[in-house]
């Protein structure tokens, strides 16, 4: 658990931009020293401007000084972590390497190509394409002969289609896309970033009704016929009322949720106010307070069923029928539709998508071309030819090896910025990366491995030199270095300590009791009903103090004629009841004894007592059981059969509970929205109906928002101190703040802070 202060200090400093450079050059001016550790003015300026440069008061003396204080506190913690050797552990190094890999990605790309691809994707997203295709499969590393054969096959199919043969029939009979047998190659509508890039590119560049030239993707060669193009649907803004119901919920719960949703929908159709019903019934806590409104969304951003229903609404104010998703039932109201958002609003989203899209291959090619030049990639053509000539059929079997005593292994194959990569380096790579191949030639396989080795070597060299080449990357790595250390030490000294140090937490709580007090509260029951009749029923049953339970199905226990002896089957049924009563102490059981018309009435009481006695033997308290005789029952058999009479020689059962949820459930059988009951200790502001009456012990009725209310105030509680168990979360958070303040003071004593006022003034702008 972290306090707001810690979130500000840690997130703003350690992650969002609190960065440090390498150890300060003694010749560089320092804005502060922490013990004997200097913080250079240039380092602090970089950090400060990155996090505060856009603020109106960024360069006032107060702003600079306040941020420097936060920064020195942060650096004190990092220095302490380094002095304790936390940056030398294997776990730390492994975590930092993982972050470095992620941070490197933006620096291992060709920005100009990415920019072009982002703009292109945005323009294409304004349109959706409906297309069909024929696929002739081909491995991405196929040999030239196989590639040519596949190309010619696709070319032949294209000629047949252009001459008038039905494209769907050609797809069904020739396409190696398994779905073609059922859909005739039809793909439906799609937009940018939903297909592999070469396919998308060809589809958008082909006119409606035309057939593309052969298109190569990682799946093989395609022919694409464009059937239609239409404007994109854009985005929709909707509100919803949600009733939770998960797919694996019990059938009874699922049915209840559906009935509840249908009841809400009927009320909307009758013209009841949307906002009122959202507030009263929506179970999406994140939207219930704002009328159920959701953020704007477009195709592919929501659960398909929800999305189709939303886009199917035509004009603002239209309301859908109930729609089911894995989250539950939804009623959707259209607020507004709009076209594609502005480029500026979508740019970052598109960049993230493109980084994972097949377009990235275009970027990679351009990037490799640039770093070949920048890093002075130079090949030894003669050594390369000789090395490739060592390919043999063993390479196709994945068993290729080489003579480790061959003098040619020392020859330079290529160099990157003066660093030599030898034939031995390449052969080591080949041995590790070779795999069995069912087609192609050894020479082709060796050429592919060489290209991969050269590319990976270039990328590795560039990655290893990013910190020397790019200041921003070096700063980012240092940020994460310091942030990881800070997290480890803060967890030890503050976060976990505040939770585990129960004695210290209790002492802090006792010393600060004034911070943790209840205001005036009302111990009350609030009943909301759809009409006065329902409210009266609820009041009557509330006064009774026990309410029928419907969640358990209770089986009768049968007896022989003129007998009150329990059978094995009867005891088994009673064992189930005993277990149920043991699990829920709020339940009470009513046992009813019955006889048939030919038996003495007293036998009914004996049967009820026998069942009661058995339950008590199983440990059920007497207070949870009542019994009575209902005497003679009407014979159940329509023809006065023995079977019918035996069904009346029994004990039946009824379950009751004091829990008000059961009262609400029984009143809501016909209408799931009929009655809502809440019982708790309310503070002012918790319930609008309760706030509308005088807070004195007693009962009250009122109308509000079209519903009838009964309020029973059992006790008005004066302001009092809270117990630790009631406010443990906030106390832990405050205790963490306290621990951090104490720790920072210890660090300032251990590493005295000396601020250089003249360097601070260099950052202040008049």
UniProtKB/TrEMBL annotation:
GO CC terms, sorted: membrane
InterPro entries documented for this protein: OmpA-like, OmpA-like_sf, PPIase_dom_sf, PPIase_PpiC, PrsA_foldase
PpiC domain sequence ranges: 126-228, 233-336
Keyword Chloroplast part of the UniProt annotation: no
PROSITE patterns (alphabetical): OMPA_2, PPIC_PPIASE_2, PROKAR_LIPOPROTEIN
Gene3D superfamilies: 3.10.50.40, OmpA-like domain
Region span, Disordered: 625-650
Keywords: Isomerase, Membrane, Rotamase
Record protein name field: Peptidyl-prolyl cis-trans isomerase SurA
Top-rank lineage group of the source organism: Bacteria
Stretches of the chain forming a coiled coil according to its record: none
């Amino acid at each position: 658990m972290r306090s707001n202060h810690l979130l500000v200090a840690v997130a703003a400093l350690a992650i969002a931009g609190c960065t440090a450079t390498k150890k300060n050059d003694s010749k560089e001016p320092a804005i502060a020293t922490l013990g004997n550790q200097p913080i250079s003015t240039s380092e602090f300026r970089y950090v400060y401007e990155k996090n505060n440069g856009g603020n109106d008061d960024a360069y006032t003396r107060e702003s600079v000084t306040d941020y420097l204080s936060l920064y020195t506190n942060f650096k004190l913690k990092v220095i302490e972590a380094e002095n304790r050797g936390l940056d030398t552990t294997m776990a730390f190094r492994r975590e930092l390497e993982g972050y470095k890999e992620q941070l490197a990605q933006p620096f291992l790309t060709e920005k100009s190509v990415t920019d072009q691809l982002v703009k292109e994707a945005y323009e294409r997203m304004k349109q959706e394409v409906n297309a069909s295709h024929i696929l002739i499969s081909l491995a991405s590393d196929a040999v030239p002969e196989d590639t040519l054969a596949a190309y010619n096959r696709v070319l032949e199919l294209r000629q047949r289609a252009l001459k008038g043969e039905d494209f769907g029939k050609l797809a069904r009979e020739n396409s190696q896309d398994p779905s073609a047998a059922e859909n005739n190659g039809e793909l439906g509508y799609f937009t940018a970033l939903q297909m592999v890039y070469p396919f998308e590119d060809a589809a958008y560049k082909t006119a409606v009704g035309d057939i593309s030239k052969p298109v190569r993707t990682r799946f093989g060669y395609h022919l694409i016929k464009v059937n239609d193009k239409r404007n994109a649907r854009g985005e929709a803004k909707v509100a919803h009322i949600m009733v939770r119901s998960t797919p694996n919920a019990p059938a009874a719960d699922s049915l209840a949720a559906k009935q509840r949703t249908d009841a809400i929908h009927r009320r909307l159709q009758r013209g009841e106010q949307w906002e009122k019903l959202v507030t009263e019934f929506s179970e999406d806590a994140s939207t219930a307070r704002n009328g159920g409104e959701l953020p704007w969304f477009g195709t592919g951003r929501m659960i398909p069923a929800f999305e189709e229903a939303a886009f199917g609404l035509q004009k603002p104010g239209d309301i859908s029928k109930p729609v089911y998703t894995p989250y539950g039932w939804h009623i959707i109201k259209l607020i507004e539709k709009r076209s594609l958002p502005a480029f500026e609003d979508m740019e970052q989203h598109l960049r993230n998508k493109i980084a994972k899209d097949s377009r990235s291959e275009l970027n990679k090619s351009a990037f490799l071309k640039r770093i070949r030049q920048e890093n002075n990639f130079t090949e030894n053509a003669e050594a390369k030819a000789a090395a490739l000539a060592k390919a043999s059929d063993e390479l196709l079997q994945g068993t290729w090896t080489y003579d480790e005593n061959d003098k040619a292994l020392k020859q330079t194959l290529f160099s990157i910025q003066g660093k030599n990569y030898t034939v031995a380096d390449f052969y080591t790579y080949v041995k590790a990366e070779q795999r069995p191949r069912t087609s192609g030639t050894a020479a082709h396989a060796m050429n592919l491995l060489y290209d991969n080795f050269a590319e990976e070597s270039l990328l590795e060299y560039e990655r290893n030199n990013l910190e020397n080449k790019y200041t921003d990357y070096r700063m980012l790595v240092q940020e994460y270095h310091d942030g990881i250390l800070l997290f480890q030490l803060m967890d030890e000294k503050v976060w976990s300590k505040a939770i585990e140090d129960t004695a210290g937490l209790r002492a802090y709580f006792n010393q600060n009791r004034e911070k943790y007090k209840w205001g005036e509260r009302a111990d009350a029951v609030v009943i909301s009903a759809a009409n006065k009749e329902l409210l009266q029923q609820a009041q009557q049953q509330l006064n009774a103090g026990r309410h029928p339970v419907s969640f358990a199905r209770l089986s009768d226990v049968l007896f022989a004629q003129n007998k009150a002896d329990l059978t094995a089957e009867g005891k088994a049924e009673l064992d189930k009841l005993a277990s149920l009563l043991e699990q829920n102490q709020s339940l009470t059981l009513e046992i009813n004894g019955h006889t048939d018309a030919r038996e003495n009435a007293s036998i009914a009481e004996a049967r009820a007592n026998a069942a009661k006695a058995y339950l008590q033997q199983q440990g059920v308290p007497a207070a949870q059981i009542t019994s009575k005789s209902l005497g003679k029952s009407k014979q159940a058999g329509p023809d006065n059969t023995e079977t019918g009479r035996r069904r009346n020689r029994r004990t039946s059962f009824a379950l009751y509970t004091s829990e008000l949820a059961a009262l609400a459930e029984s009143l809501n059988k016909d209408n799931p929205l009929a009655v809502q009951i809440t019982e708790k200790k309310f503070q002012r502001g918790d319930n609008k109906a309760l706030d509308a009456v005088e807070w004195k012990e007693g009962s009250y009725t009122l109308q509000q928002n079209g519903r009838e209310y009964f309020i029973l105030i059992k006790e008005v509680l004066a302001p009092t101190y809270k117990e630790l168990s009631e406010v443990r979360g906030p106390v832990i958070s405050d205790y963490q703040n306290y621990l951090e303040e104490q720790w920072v003071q210890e660090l300032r004593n251990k590493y005295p802070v000396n601020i250089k006022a003249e360097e601070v003034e260099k950052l202040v702008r008049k």
